[in-house]
Structures are given as structure tokens and as C-alpha cells.
Amino acid sequence: MKEILQDIDLWFADEDAKIALATVVLTWGSAPRRVGAKMAVNAAGQMSGSVSGGCVEGAVVEACLTSLDTGQAQLLHFGVADETAWDVGLACGGSIDIFVEVLDEAWYKFFCHSVLEAWTGSVVTVIRGTQDLVGQKAAYSQGGEQTGSLGDEVDLALHSLLPALHKSQPLSLNNGIEVFVDRFQPPSILVMVGGVHVAVALTRLAKSVGCQTVVVDPRRSFGSELRFPEVDYLIQKWPEQAFQEFKPSPNMAVALLTHDPKIDDQALKILLASNAFYIGALGSRKTHAKRKDRLRQMGFTDEAIARIHAPIGLDIGADNPEEIALAIMAEIVAVRRGIATSSE
């Protein structure tokens, strides 16, 4: 939704503005937009964002205008056969469900505040159920705080289900109620320990997918502004000092790239006791075996050591810095999305 905020802000500058929001809540087959993708439409028929393409997009705009007239939310379903798929923007057939609602300005402001505060949690919308419930919303933070209510029974069910969810998705509850869980997380932070050539390529790639980037290297010839003109933060300190300044957090991934135990091991002593969601280390299996022995001597358990993804990155046969960066970034995204990857 972040990509359409500017347009929505512009439309809401008109105090009489009415805006509809369409959200992809379920896909099957090769729908071109993922679950959670959004499109906003104002009363003049102007649109921002995308939920699909072709005839589907046109039909969704019409549904948005209808909802603006009636005030009623709608759950749309488009099923497409392979032979007609290209005509409606579903490349190889499949189906797509889209929920259309009138955008409530108070909830919109709440969402904007959540983005600014790097909030982690879920906004839940009833997409199927009794007429008085459809379109109702509540927000649940990862820390257990709640804004709004969907009723005691639904709230109780969601509090037990939401902690296990790592992505946006629909959920079927009791009494024929179906909700869409819109999962929000702050942007990932990628910390690269070691200003090596792989880090140069990885910085560019990480920024292209929306990560905040940090390079840590006490060696000024490696961790220099000349080598990293695009990085968000360049910290020319040892990891022990750097992680005091940039503390590990649940939205942080760390890639250890130096091949130097004096630097990498110092970082691992901090990271293995932290809540960083990803820790990866460059090096062969033989190098990692020696690393594990050193960490055991420091007192770390095998369970703690198993958090390290090493050799770092998905196995795609990478043989140059750009391909290694791609393999690392792919693994970080997979872990962030709750897809298991082997750490050995």
C-alpha cells in the first residue's frame, strides 16, 4: 500500500473526498499481483496502484465506483481459463479474489501512523459474514495491543491465530465469518559486516527491494564512502561497537562477509544472543566447521549455532559477487516470509 499513499494523501486533501480501496485477498494460479496488493480509486474514477491488469482492473474500478455510491463493501471473484487468461491480465489462468471497500479516513491515518512508527502487526478486515460485520476492521500489534474490535469471539480467535502468521492471507473463522489478515512489518534492515565486493553488489540489490542498508567495517579502505556511495549507514567501527550503535532487532538481517574470524566472531558473539531474524556467514563448509568449533569454545550451544545460515545464501551455483549477492538476498527474503531454508 505504501506506493499509493502519496495519491491518497492528495485526494484526501479535499475534505469531501471519497475513496475506495481494492485489496487482493486470495489468488490461485499465476495472478500477476500478490495477496495484499492494493489499488485506490476516487470518485472521479482516477486510480492508483494495481490489483491485476486488463479487464479485471477495469471491472474492479467499476466495482469501486459502485461501492462509493452505495457505501457497501464487495468481495469480487474472477476465475479465468487458460485460453482467455491474457485478455484479463492473468498470464496463465487461475483466479483472484478482491475485496472492495470505502476507505475510512480514520483507519487510513492509523495505517500511515503505523508505517511511520515501523509498526509490526496485522489489520484484520471481515470480508465475508453478516452484513453488519462485512468491512469491519480491527488492528492487532505483535505485542498484543488492539485497536478496534470485531467482537469478543472473533477477537479471542484472532489473538490465538495471529502470532503464527508471517504473511497476509484470508482466514476462515467460526459462524461463516471470513477475515483478511493484512500483515504489516517495518522495512528490513540489512547489516553487512565487511565492506567486500559482495557487499557492494548486495547493497544495491537490498535497496532495490526496500531494505535499509548498513555496512560495518573497521578497515577504512574497505568500509569507505567511495566504495559505498548508496549505503544508508556506513559504520567504520568494530562490530562490538557498531552493534551498540545499531542494535539488533527482529527486522534485522546480518550478513557476515569478511572471512576474518577477528571481525566475524566478534559480531557472532552479539548476534547469536540477539533477536535478529537472519544471520548468514560467508565461507565454505570447511570454514564454517572451524567457525562452529570456535563458537562452541566460547560457550555457545549447537542450537544457538544452528541459527547461522552457512554457507550463506541459497544454492544457485553463484560464482561471482553479483550472483552471490542475489543468492544471499533471496535467502533473506525467504526467511523473512517464513519459508524455511537450511542453515547447513
What this model shows, in words?
By secondary structure, the chain is α/β, with parallel strands linked by helices. It folds into three domains: 2-103, no CATH class; 106-184, no CATH class; 189-336, NAD(P)-binding Rossmann-like Domain (Rossmann fold, 3-Layer(aba) Sandwich), CATH 3.40.50.720. The protein is built from ten helices and 16 strands. The chain has helices at 5-12, 54-70, 105-116, 152-161, 197-208, 239-245, 261-271, 285-297, 302-305, 321-336; strands spanning 19-29, 38-42, 47-49, 74-80, 94-102, 121-128, 137-141, 146-147, 169-172, 178-184, 189-193, 212-216, 233-235, 252-256, 278-281, 308-309. The strands form three sheets. Strands 13-12-11-14-15-16 form a six-stranded parallel beta sheet, sandwiched between helices. A five-stranded antiparallel beta sheet has the order 3-2-1-5-4. Strands 8-7-6-10-9 form a five-stranded antiparallel beta sheet, with no helix packed on it. Strand 1 and strand 2 (38-42) form a beta hairpin. The relative contact order is 0.08.
Secondary structural class: alpha/beta
Q: Helicity range of the residues?
A: 25-40%
Report the strand count: 16
Quote the average pLDDT: 88
Poorly predicted sequence stretches spanning 5 or more consecutive residues: 82-86
Write down the domain tally: 3
Radius of gyration: 23 Å
